[in-house]
Amino acid sequence: FGLFDWEETVIADDPGFKASSPLSRLDAFFVHERGGLRFTEYNAETPAGASYNDILAEATLGLPAMRAFMKQYEVRPLPSRHNVMHALLDAWQQFSGQSKARPRIAILDWSDVPTYSEFVLTQNYLHDQGIECVIADPRDVEYRNGKLVAEGVDIDLIYKRVLINELVDRCGLDHAVVRAVRERAVCMVNPFRCKILHKKASLAMLSDEAHADMFDRDACAAITRAVPWTRVVRERKTTHDGEEVDLIPFIVRERQRLVLKPNDDYGGRGITLGWTVNDTTWERAVQDALAAPHIVQERVEIPSEPYPSWVDGQVELLDRQYDTAPFVSRSEYMEGLLTRLSTSPLLNVTAGGGSTVPTFLAEPR
C-alpha cells in the first residue's frame, strides 16, 4: 500500500470501533454500454459532498422547472447526510460503550479550505438533530487534563475532514489531536487506519495478478468487471490483457490509454492523463512516478451528457462529462451520490472547471 513508517505506527492503534472507514466515497463512472460502474478511486479518508448533495437536492426540488417535470415523472432524491450522522453515532457508541449518549462533535479542518461552507451545513443539520457540534481548526485545539478542547468546549468525537498527512506534516505527531486520539481520550472518524485503503495502491492491490489468490472466483470476477487495470509504478514484469509486459516500457509506450496518479493526494493534484500530454511530458511524468509512490491506471471511458449552461446571458446546451460517486457508510451501505460535471476529463471540483449537481431517481408516472 506504500505506507510511510509513521503511518504504519498509527494504524496499529485500535480506534475503538469496527469499521476502518465509517465514512467513504467511491469515485466512479457509469457507462451502461461498457458494463456499468468502473471505480477509479476510493476516498476512504475524508469524503466530502454529502451535505452539498442534500441541500442542492432540496433547492432543486423547489424550482418551477422541477414542478413541471414532476407532473410526468416521479422524482426521488438520494440523501446522504443522515447516514453521515448515523455512522458518527455508531462509531461513538462502540467507542464509548454508551448506546444512547450523544457525543459533542468537532468538525476538524483548516479554516481556509474551500469546503468550509459544507461544514456549516453539516453543523446546522447536526444541531437540528439535537447534537452539539463545533467547527475547529486543528491549530486552535488543545489537549489538557485528558480532554481535547475545541472552541472552548470538551470534545467527545472528531468528525475528521482534515487529511491525516496534512495534519502530521504541518503540526507533527506530537500534536494535540494525534495524542488525544492515540490515548483514546477522543473518538475520531475516520480513524488513522483508514489510510490503508485510502492509498490509491489499494486498487492496484485488487487488480494485480500477484494477489489473485487472495480472492475467490466471484470476487475476482467483480474486480475485473468494476476496477480498471491498476499497478504500482515500479520496475517489474506484470500482465495486461493476459500477456506479460515489462511495466515501465509498457507505460511509456501506451500513453494514450493510461493515467498516472500519486499514491496519496487529492483534488486532482499530480495526476497526468496520458492522452492530454505529449511524449516528452509523459516520459518525465513516468520518471517522477518512479521517484515517488504512484500508480498507473488504464483509462476509463468518461460518460457525457448535454447540460443547460448559462453563457453570456443565455442558456446553452453543452456537453459535460460527469462521474457517479456513491457515498458508503460503515463499510457496508451506499447512501446517496456525489455527481460532478466538468468540461475537463479530470473531474474534480477542487481542480477547477467543474461543478457539483444533485442526483435523483426519476421514473415515468
What does this structure look like?
The protein has 365 residues and is an alpha+beta fold. Helix content is 30%, strand content 31%. Strands 1, 2, 17, 18, 19 and 20 form a 6-stranded antiparallel β-sheet that branches. β1 (23-31) and β2 form a beta hairpin. α2 crosses α5. The longest helix is centred in the first third of the chain and has 16 residues, at 81-96. It is globular, with a radius of gyration of 22 Å.
Shape: globular
Structural class: alpha+beta
Percentage of residues in helical conformation: 25-40%
Number of helices: 12
Q: Which residues sit in consecutive blocks of at least 5 with pLDDT less than 50?
A: none
Task: Walk me through the topology.
Blueprint: H1 5-11, E1 23-31, E2 36-43, H2 50-61, H3 64-69, E3 73-77, H4 81-96, E4 105-108, H5 116-128, E5 133-136, E6 142-144, E7 147-150, E8 153-155, E9 157-160, H6 164-171, H7 176-182, E10 187-189, H8 195-198, H9 201-207, H10 217-226, E11 230-232, E12 237-240, E13 243-246, H11 247-253, E14 258-262, E15 272-273, H12 279-291, E16 294-298, E17 304-311, E18 314-329, E19 333-342, E20 354-357, E21 360-364
Parallel strand pairs: 4-5, 4-9, 9-10
Antiparallel strand pairs: 1-2, 1-18, 3-21, 6-7, 7-8, 11-16, 12-13, 14-15, 14-16, 17-18, 18-19, 19-20
Helix pairs in contact: 2-5
